[in-house]
Amino acid sequence: MKTHAIIFEGAPERLDVFLTRSESGLSREFVKRLINDGRALVNGALRKPSFLLSPGDTVSIDLPAMGKKEASALDAIIIYEDKDLLAVAKPAGVSVHPNDSNWERRPETCLIGEPTLVSMLLRARPGLGNNEVPRMGLVHRLDRDTSGLMLVAKTPEAQAALQTQFRERQVEKTYVGVVGGVPAKNTGTIDAPIGRASGFKKIKVWEYGRDALTDFKVAEKTAKHALLEVYPRTGRTNQIRIHLEFIGHPIVGDRLYAGERASRLLLHSREITFIHPSKRKKTTLEVPLPEDFRREWTRIKKEDKKF
User: Fold this and answer.
1) What is the CATH number assigned to the segment(s) 2-63?
2) For residue 45, what pLDDT is reported?
3) Residue 4: its pLDDT value, please?
4) DSSP letters for 187-246
5) If you ran DSSP here, which 8-state letter would residue 134 be given?
6) How would you class 213 by CB atoms within 10 Å of its CB: exposed for 0-12, middle for 13-18, buried for 19 or more?
7) Which residues on adjacent β-strands are paired with residue 116?
8) Which residues does 307 contact at the CB level (< 8 Å), separation at least 6?
9) What is the mean pLDDT of the chain?
10) Predicted pLDDT of residue 1
11) 20: closest CA among 46, 53, 43, 45?
């Protein structure tokens, strides 16, 4: 941890207001969290965010140190790496980055709280946190509960090239998902705009939303479920989950979009095809279905045979 102290001077001021003003890049909500977690002390003592500082008070703040490469869970999930990029198999249940945006301005803040992909990246590849590569090299994202393949750029040039490919829909993505019910046809296209209607927190199919297009193919089926290959042609937030619920076949384990209960969300990013930033060659990377996904699909097939 990196501790530094500040001597307060001036008219009395709230502790959280003072630290937000003094610590560039930290939001007030994040500062309150630091104070409540005991990472910001006044004269060595715990205080509330509303505590009024007086001239001469010493405010000490602890933030994780960065810059030294450490052992990280990242090493176990890397499937490919070169000078331009790395590819990881993100586990289900791991967020790509913290909910707040402090980590974009002060990367070390992502080391506080539960592990995320960016905290793994910062520990294992601290050079990505020196702000030379924006957003720690991220070029796309996966939902917290979706597992599978993600690309991370290691240079600004690679990041720009990959972001352009994603933006211009040149990246081919294949997901695998288990849905409730069996689609009437073995292949299909869902063309339905997605957005957040005024007054609603949940993103959904909405006539005034942004265009969204998803193709799918039935790879395997039982009497009550189907294993689909899914090809999102656009990259809207929660697109696959929203579209499959929209046609009456929600992803199993999707608590937000009406999926039946399961030990995890049965959605996995299996394959990505892109043009390599420096080699300029079409490149395909793949991550097989993880064990917990395969185990749940096996359970579902066995249970469906009983009926």
Assistant:
1) 3.10.290.10
2) 95
3) 85
4) EEEEE--EE--TT-SS-EE-TTSB--EEEEEEEEE-SSEEEEEEEESS--TTHHHHHHHH
5) G
6) middle
7) none
8) 223, 224
9) 93
10) 62
11) 53
* Domain chopping of the chain, boundaries: 2-63, 66-168, 169-307
CA–CA distance, 211 with 195 (Å, rounded to integer): 9
The catalytic residue positions are 143
| Residue 93 falls in which region: left (phi positive, over 0), alpha (psi -120 to 50) or beta | left
Q: Tell me, letter by letter, the H, E, C secondary structure of 97-132.
A: CCCCCHHHHCHHHHHCCCCCHHHHHHHHCHHHHCCC
The SS3 call for residue 153 is: strand
Same fold, 2-63 and 66-168: no
CA distance 38 to 77: 33
| Residue 256 DSSP label | T
CA distance 266 to 251: 6
CATH class (in words) of the domain with range 66-168: alpha beta
Share of the chain above pLDDT 90, in %: 84
DSSP three-state, residue 275:
strand
Nearest CA to 228 out of 246, 256, 249 is that of 249
Q: What is the DSSP letter of 66?
A: -
Residue 251 has pLDDT above 90, yes or no: yes
- Residue (of 158, 112, 103) closest to 131 by Cα position: 103
| Tokens encoding 104 | 């974009």
Question: Please, what's the b/e burial string for 127-149 (b: 16 or more CB within 10 A of its CB; e: otherwise)?
Answer: ebbeeebebbbbbbbbbebbbbb
| Contacts for 93-99: CB closer than 8 Å, 24+ residues apart | 93/144, 93/145, 93/264, 94/144, 95/144, 96/138, 96/141, 96/142, 96/144, 96/150, 97/135, 97/136, 97/138, 97/141
**Higher pLDDT residue, 72 or 154?**
154
Would you identify the CATH topology of the domain 169-307? Pseudouridine synthase (3.30.2350)
Give pLDDT, residue 197. 82
pTM of the shown model: 0.91
